[in-house]
Amino acid sequence: MTYETPAPDSPFRTEPAPRDLAPQFVLPLVVRIERAAPPPRTDALETAARAVLVLLGDERSRGEGEWARAVRDWQDARIRKVVRRARGAEWRRAEALPGITVTGKTAEVRVFPPVPLDGWPKDLAKLQVSGTDLDDPEPPARPDPGTPVLWLNPGLEMSAGKAMAQAGHGAQLAWWELTDEQRTAWHDAGFPLTVRTADPAHWHELTTSGLPLVRDAGFTEIAPGSCTVIADHPALRRSLRRAR
18-21 long-range CB contacts below 8 Å, 24 or more apart? Predict the structure, then answer.
């Protein structure tokens, strides 16, 4: 199975690049947050990251699929993701639009094919970005050995919505670095992954490991160039060891 990978010029770089001249697209994600039962923060982050991978691995996003042109246009420009929240009738309207709903332990996230930056569907455009502050009722467990981990920078404060987008960026960088065979294996396994905040010492080690690292463009919440997520996939670690 063959998947698309963008040109080598990273869409996550913060300095001006030819990508800035291309039409800009955004990947919409909507998290379901019912007033009486909001999902735990970590579950929402992991579900959002998996949602990005599910869309990238979907046959509609590849080759001549119905979403493929939009995905290519999005990957040719800056990679933007925006997370909005919905509940009740808002969620039902969002579910009626073309997209994919991905479920976690309790979280539900719907991902949609990329849209022009100023061309959101009406039912998504009116959803709120703010209000995605979620909490974990208890500290997340240690990651299972062998499971890909998206490590968050312990020195940054991010809303849940911002962190969901950044986790999606990290998952996408890992996806691009894998071979088609490795992507297929991850896809067939259901995209297992965890999202955790690294402790400061571990974060320092990760930043020099050679693993994919997200540098935020600084559109919202944090300063341009901030390192937000490092994608620690076992297959990428093995590749790094062989290269040394």
Answer: 19/76, 19/77, 19/78, 20/77, 20/78
Q: How far apart are CA 244 and CA 165, in angstroms?
A: 32
Q: What are 56-114's pLDDT values in tens digits?
A: 999 999 999 999 999 999 988 678 999 999 999 999 999 999 999 999 999 999 999 99
Count of residues for the chain?
A: 244
Among all chains, which residue has been given the structure tokens 């991010």?
158
Confirm if 27 and 55 have CB atoms less than 8 A apart: yes
**Tokens read off for 226:** 């901030």
CB-CB neighbours of 206 under 10 Å: 20
Sheet holding 149-152, edge to edge: 194-197, 149-152, 227-232, 213-215
3-class DSSP state for residue 105? coil
Q: Could you give the CA distance from residue 92 to residue 97 in angstroms, rounded to a whole number?
A: 9
**Residue 17's pLDDT is what?**
53
pTM check: above 0.85: yes
Q: Which long-range contacts (CB under 8 A, 24 or more apart) does 56-60 make?
A: 56/3, 56/172, 56/175, 57/3, 57/175, 57/183, 57/187, 57/191, 58/100, 60/113
